[in-house]
Amino acid sequence: MLILECPCCGVKAEETELHGGGEAHIKRETVGSDDDAFEQYLFTRANPRGVHLERWRHANGCGKWFHAARDTTTLEVFGTYSAQTYEPPKAIIDAIKAKRPDWSLKDWQGAT
Amino acid sequence: MKRYSAFAIAREAARFHSGWERAWRSPEPKKKYKAIVIGAGGHGLATAYYLGKNHGIKDVAVIEKGWLGGGNTGRNTTIIRSNYLQDPSAAIYEKSRSLYETMSQDLNYNVMFSPRGVLMLAQTHHEVRGYQRTAHANALQGVKTEFIGPQRVKEICPIMNIEGPRYPVLGGLFQARGGTARHDAVAWGYARACSDMGMDIIQQCEVTAIKREGGEVKGISTTKGEIACDKLCIVVAGNSGHLADLAGFRLPLESVALQALVSEPIKPCMDIVVMANTVHGYMSQSDKGEMVIGGGTDGYNNYTQRGSFQHIEETVRALIETFPMLSRLKMLRQWGGIVDVTGDRSPILSKTPLGNCFINCGWGTGGFKAIPGSGWAMAELVAKGHSPLTAEFGLDRFKEGRFIDESVAAGVAH
Amino acid sequence: MSNAVSALQGATSDGIAKVTEVGLRGMIILRGDLTSAKLKKAAKAATGVAFPDVRECHCDGDKGLAWMSPDELLVMVPYADVVDATARIAKALAADHALAVNVSDARAVFSIEGAGAREVLAKLAPVDLSRKAFTKGMFRRTRLAQAPVAFWARDEDAFDLMCFRSEAKYVFDLLTISAKAGSQVGFL
């Protein structure tokens, strides 16, 4: 069972209190963007076997959105962080790199 | 290959079963093949089989990281049906269903295809209208289905409570020639037939790199060495994103766990497959007597092939109103498989940005029923460069907005 | 004026804990900046209890303040006073980015009391209800089986729980079944 600590209310919530919101830090395309950009935004997703950055909502709880860094093969959680950011804070990146020294944010952004 | 037959059983019985040969060979890989299929699940093996049988391409290797049929082929709920709304889906799934009818004879391998009938319950008025529409569409597509009323549902499946307080059964979409098959046997039957055609099935061999040159695929690196090929076909379900990464392109899909569970074995009580999409559960009874129950997907990316506690509760709770007898059953075991779900919930059978590299993925939660049709269509695409069955399932549809929008492979009941 | 009644009109059940629908209670959802002194003052003026910290609920009879989320506070007052109390808070915060809404009739409130109260809730919600982890004055939004609820510890073995009024019967039945005599797990 997946357990994430909600950074908004501090509850260590198990997955039935939470709702997964998919890949984090997606760049939103809008008027003026071309078809390729819209395809990327709407459909193309990072689907890594390993470290993943995601959006979550504490749906059966305080109701707030937040971010989580997690490994999709081990379900290990590296940390959760605020939803009000374009990329993970240094503490999260350090926590990931402590366990996965080869991981880089750049690779993840380009990862499939 | 020695044929399986009643005569063969009698002959072997007379000599203490000492003459059976292995169903397929386990050779070391050659330096080069005309075509390599990555993934020895149902879809990969079927692709290889029809490459040989329909197109005469027999210099083929099927590469498998684990063991043959050990992924979703061995983890699904074995349902076969073709009652889809959109024409491209109905075409490929009906092709598939019809191939299942003769598969045991074609492969000389008993896949235990059981056309016991598949019933999709309508438990809201929206579903009634939706399934009536599907029944009409199926009539135009040449797929035999019918919309039936609640009394007929009760006759077909007497253990069902059609008068539940929350979701009474208002009718159902019934496909009498849908059913189930023995999932492992489908993989084993194709593997045996492929091996017999001289194809090499190489298990416990993980692909570590895909070699490219001038925008074309040249071969693969594996844990058993380098293998060159003219054409490459990636058929790896949940791991499609990872293999696409190795091939240098991205896919519009995400991998999630889909779970199922079985009850303790009980006496025969239900001789059809029932799917209840509103409450989110589907069930059939296996030949061993276990009630085979399918649930939903986990709502997040996941590569762990495991079950989780809350899915037992959710799925069984969903079914108990409609099947009260389940409340007295013990659940025996649960498991999960990794399904690859696309943006429009329909599969991808397509060329890729890499020359001579093809991909068959995105079957999501609905792949088992499609195995023979998918293999048939994919083999044609790989051999000829086009196939009428795959034409609408290209990767380009996401950019062009030509979705096949009917939740073929949604994270819902299948 | 219509005669307001609560969802289950005081239904009760007894087992390892006593479950009671406590009747009408005034409830105001107050959204705004919970760090603002003005908001704190308005909330305290309406209830007379101390302002709660994260995941806390301070109660005094029918009155209380509960921390719902980083920008949301639940203000509880006697049902008869709720309309006036809402107006007073709205007036006090008129110049601020804040919103006070009377949601009393959208809610049902239960009390769960007795030696087995913690077990009754622990069987239904994914929350650590051990005496050490869930202490008096703590507040928690979560789910009870399929229903979203919030509960708080009024005392060691006494909890109040609120849910949507439309789900009152479902929640009452859940609590009653969970409190059935002889159903102690004995784990807490």
TrEMBL record, chain A:
Q: Which GO terms describe its molecular function?
A: sarcosine oxidase activity
Tell whether Oxidoreductase is among the UniProt keywords: yes
- EC category: oxidoreductase
**One GO term of the biological process aspect:** tetrahydrofolate metabolic process
What keywords would UniProt list here?
Answer: Oxidoreductase
Q: Looking at the record's lineage, which domain of life comes first?
A: Bacteria
Enzyme Commission number, as recorded = 1.5.3.1
Instruction: Reply yes or no: does the keyword Ligase apply.
Output: no
Which Pfam families does the entry link to? SoxD
Q: Report the InterPro entries cross-referenced here.
A: SoxD, SoxD_sf
Q: What is this protein called?
A: Sarcosine oxidase delta subunit
Source organism per entry reads Litoreibacter arenae DSM 19593
Q: What is the lineage of its organism?
A: Bacteria, Pseudomonadati, Pseudomonadota, Alphaproteobacteria, Rhodobacterales
From TrEMBL, chain B:
PROSITE patterns hit by this protein = RHODANESE_3 (PS50206)
Which Pfam families does the record cross-reference, listed alphabetically? DAO
GO annotation, biological process: tetrahydrofolate metabolic process
EC identifiers of the protein: 1.5.3.24
Q: Where in the cell is it found?
A: Cytoplasm
- Tell me if Hydrolase is a UniProt keyword of this record: no
List the PANTHER family.
FAD-DEPENDENT OXIDOREDUCTASE DOMAIN-CONTAINING PROTEIN 1, SARCOSINE DEHYDROGENASE-RELATED
Please list the residue ranges annotated as the Rhodanese domain: 36-79
- Protein name per Swiss-Prot or TrEMBL: Sarcosine oxidase subunit beta
Originating species: Litoreibacter arenae DSM 19593
Keyword Iron annotated: no
Q: Which domain of life is it from?
A: Bacteria
One Gene Ontology term of the molecular function aspect: nucleotide binding
Primary localization: cytoplasm
TrEMBL record, chain C:
Q: Kindly report, in one word, the top-level EC class recorded for this enzyme.
A: oxidoreductase
For this chain, one GO molecular function annotation is:
sarcosine oxidase activity
Give UniProt keywords alphabetically.
Oxidoreductase
Its Enzyme Commission number(s) read: 1.5.3.1
Q: Which SUPFAM superfamilies match?
A: Folate-binding domain
What is the recorded name of this protein?
Sarcosine oxidase gamma subunit
Oxidoreductase is among the record's keywords = yes
* Keyword Iron-sulfur annotated: no
